[in-house]
Amino acid sequence: GGELVGHVALCFDVTPYHEGEGEMESAIGGVFPLLKQTRLIAVVLDPHGRVLFSNGSLCRLLRCGGAELMNAPLFERHLVGAQRDLLQRLYPDGKQATLFPGEFQTELLTSDQQSRHVFWHAVVWRDGSGRAQGTVLIGDDVTALREEEEQTSLYVKAFEATDHAIVVTNVQGTILSVNRAFTELTG
C-alpha cells in the first residue's frame, strides 16, 4: 500500500580497513552472502561499471544468467537508449563519476527487450587513499508502479478532456474533484 513497514540495512565492520589492518575487499566480501539472500536486486560494479557480483534477483529481472552478467558493463549493455545521458553521468569517459549519486532510477532492457524500471540505492566503496573501488547497488523493480502511474495519468487526462461533466464524491457526498466540463456547466 505504499506505507513504510520497515527498513533493510546491510552493515559491515570497516574498522580494520580504516586502521589499515584489513582489505576492503574482505570487508565487502562479508556482505556478499547477505546480498545473495535479499529479494531486492543486488549488484556490485567495478569502477568501470562492470559486474563483479550480482544476485539472482538481477538475473531474473534481466532474464539472463549470472555468467552473462559477470564482467559485463551493466548499464552500458542494458540501459534504454533514451537514458544514455545517465550513463555519461554515472561513468563519464568510462570511469565512475567522482560524485556518484546515492539514488537514481533506470529503465533497463531485458534480454528479450522488455522494459524494466529500477530504483537504485548506491554506496561507493573506496580504498585507503579515497579512490573508488566500485559501487554496491541495491535496487527495487518499480515497473508495476510506473505502469500504474502512467495508467492514472491517462485517466486524469481523459477526466479533464471529456465534454461530459464529472464530479467525484466520497461516501458522505463531499465533493473531492470536478472536471473542467462540470465547472463550465455549473458556473
List keywords for this structure.
alpha+beta, five-stranded antiparallel sheet, 187 residues, 9 helices, two-stranded antiparallel sheet
Task: Briefly characterize the structure.
With 187 residues, the protein is of the alpha+beta class.
Can you count the beta strands?
Answer: 7
Strand proportion, as a percent range, falls in: 15-25%
Q: How far is the first residue's CA from the last residue's CA?
A: 37 Å
Mean pLDDT: 82
Low-confidence stretches: none
Structural class: alpha+beta
The share of residues in helices is 25-40%
Oligomer: single chain
One letter per element, helices H and strands E, the order comes to HHHEEHHHHEEEHEEH
Major sheet description: 5 strands, antiparallel
Kindly report the spatial arrangement of strands forming the biggest sheet: 2-1-5-4-3
Rg, please? 22 Å
Q: How many H/I helices?
A: 9
**Global shape:** elongated
Tell me what you see in this structure:
The protein has 187 residues and is an alpha+beta fold. It contains 9 helices and 7 strands; from the N terminus they run αααββααααβββαββα. The mean pLDDT is 82.
Question: Topology, pairings included?
Answer:
Elements: H1 15-18, H2 24-29, H3 32-37, E1 41-45, E2 51-54, H4 56-62, H5 66-69, H6 74-78, H7 84-90, E3 103-109, E4 115-126, E5 132-141, H8 143-161, E6 167-169, E7 175-178, H9 180-186
Antiparallel strand pairs: 1-2, 1-5, 3-4, 4-5, 6-7
